[in-house]
Amino acid sequence: MPKSSGPPPFVAPQLSQLVNAPPEGDGWAHEIKYDGYRIHARVVRGEVTLLTRTGLDWTERYQTTAKALCVIKIRGGAYLDGELCAVNPDGTTSFANLQAATDARSTEHLIYFAFDLLFLNGKDLTGAPLLDRKSRLEALLKASPQTIQYSGHHIGDGKRILDAACGAKAEGIVSKRVDAPYAPGNRGLWRKSKCVSREEFIIVGYSDPEASRPYFGALLLGYYDDDGRLLYAGRAGTGFSDAELRRVYDILQPLRIAKMPLSVPPPSATRFGSPLVLSRVHWVKPKLVCEVTFLTWTADGLLRQVSYQGLRADKPAEEVRRPRPS
């Protein structure tokens, strides 16, 4: 492996391919899929930079995590890949609680789960097999603060691991080739299997509230297809607290536009859900991304039983596509 004087400023993250079932066999290591922000941690001479999956510097937002990483004894620099999470008392992770902690600037209890090591003490490890990188990472984090944790794995028996993860109310698992290098982008070397359908969509508008509900009724969601068209995906009307309704409403107001941003108007009626009255819809610039859970896609290409989970400030809207399991 080539030597270098320090870790690179940024490494594009390796991505995972959505699959219907986890791969089987001893060639795969299975890890819990966390519900948080994907964060790269660059450590050089006691200084830490926290980077999002698109390379944004979020060190200022999570100073407690950065300071905890400074405690780890690293001679020549390191570059870690992991997920920053809010952990519930039952051990599950919650994106909504992570977002609330971020907004309240109360981030001291967040946990950084490190699952990969790309650079350590002058050595580029991206070409090394996954299990070699994880072994070095585990040793590095043995004496780390409690808010920095090593993300373990299980070899083989993917279905049993997924069933156990779902039973523990996790989002799912990520399965990784044990002998593969770190390869930025989606190469099929990492595969995610989910317990529930959960994806990111662009907010294209919102409907007026009804009855006693304040601010808005539902968010209208969309995604880009391969031809660059912005298509309607459905509505998210549940999953909001009153405080979140107001927060999202306030964020949307400067984005309001008169013209519908969708390439094709949404249907006024579907087999599932109440009719959509376009005269009660307010369109917004397609800039904001939110994460939702849903039951399934309907035959006419719309989401069913959608529940809002939170805004995603770490993903540009232009990158949102409809995922299709392989």
List the helices and strands and how they pair.
Elements: E1 17-18, E2 28-32, E3 37-44, E4 47-51, H1 63-71, E5 78-85, H2 95-103, E6 111-120, E7 123-124, H3 130-140, E8 148-150, E9 154-155, H4 158-167, E10 172-177, E11 190-194, E12 197-207, E13 219-224, E14 230-236, H5 242-252, E15 256-257, E16 281-284, E17 289-294, E18 296-297, E19 303-304, E20 307-311
Parallel strand pairs: 1-11, 6-8
Antiparallel strand pairs: 2-9, 2-10, 3-4, 3-5, 5-6, 6-7, 10-11, 12-13, 12-16, 12-17, 13-14, 15-16, 17-20, 18-19
What's the name of the CATH homologous superfamily of the largest domain?
Nucleic acid-binding proteins
Q: Order of helices and strands, N to C? A: EEEEHEHEEHEEHEEEEEHEEEEEE
The first-level CATH class of the largest domain is given as Mainly Beta
Largest sheet: 7 strands, antiparallel
Helix fraction bin:
10-25%
Structure description:
- The chain is an alpha+beta fold and 326 residues long.
- It folds into three domains: 13-29 and 158-195, no CATH class; 35-150, DNA ligase/mRNA capping enzyme (D-amino Acid Aminotransferase, Chain A, domain 1), CATH 3.30.470.30; 197-319, OB fold (Dihydrolipoamide Acetyltransferase, E2P) (Beta Barrel).
- It is 15% helix and 31% strand.
- It is built from five helices and 20 strands.
- The chain has helices at 63-71, 95-103, 130-140, 158-167, 242-252; strands spanning 17-18, 28-32, 37-44, 47-51, 78-85, 111-120, 123-124, 148-150, 154-155, 172-177, 190-194, 197-207, 219-224, 230-236, 256-257, 281-284, 289-294, 296-297, 303-304, 307-311.
- The strands form four sheets. Strands 12, 13, 14, 15, 16, 17 and 20 form a seven-stranded antiparallel sheet that branches.
- Strand 18 and strand 19 (303-304) form a beta hairpin.
- It starts with 16 loop residues before the first strand and ends in a 15-residue tail after the last strand.
